[in-house]
Amino acid sequence: MKTIKTLKTVMLIAVLTLGVQFYALAQSPLPPEPPIPSGPTVGDEGSAPIGSGLVVLLTLAGAYGGYKLYKNSNEDEEQES
């Protein structure tokens, strides 16, 4: 009885999966995207600099690591006493 229920479940999943695939294949292809202009253009804001964000991230990570080391060393000293 359990194998029949499992077989029905597998068949249902297969039918639904194939149905979605055939539906996707029946659709017309999307039109091609326009080409991306290369180089700076008039009114281009540019992108955000990554260097300063990286410095902030590394500084915060170092501060957090230092805090954890300080906290763990204090706990070790209290346990020895």
Oligomer: single chain
Largest sheet: none
Give the CA-based shape.
flat
State the distance separating the first and last CA atoms: 67 Å
Please work out how many helical segments DSSP would assign: 2
Helix content: 55-70%
Low-confidence runs: none
Strand fraction equals: under 5%
Number of strands: 0
Rg, Cα atoms, Å = 30 Å
Please identify the structural class as seen in this structure: mainly alpha
| H-E string | HH
Mean pLDDT: 78
Give a topology summary.
Blueprint: H1 2-26, H2 51-80
Mind explaining what this structure looks like?
The chain has helices spanning 2-26, 51-80. With 81 residues, it is an all-alpha fold. The radius of gyration is 30 Å and the shape is flat.
Which properties best describe this structure?
68% helix; 81 residues; single chain; mainly alpha
Summarize the structure.
The chain has 81 residues and is mainly α. The protein has 2 helices and no strands.
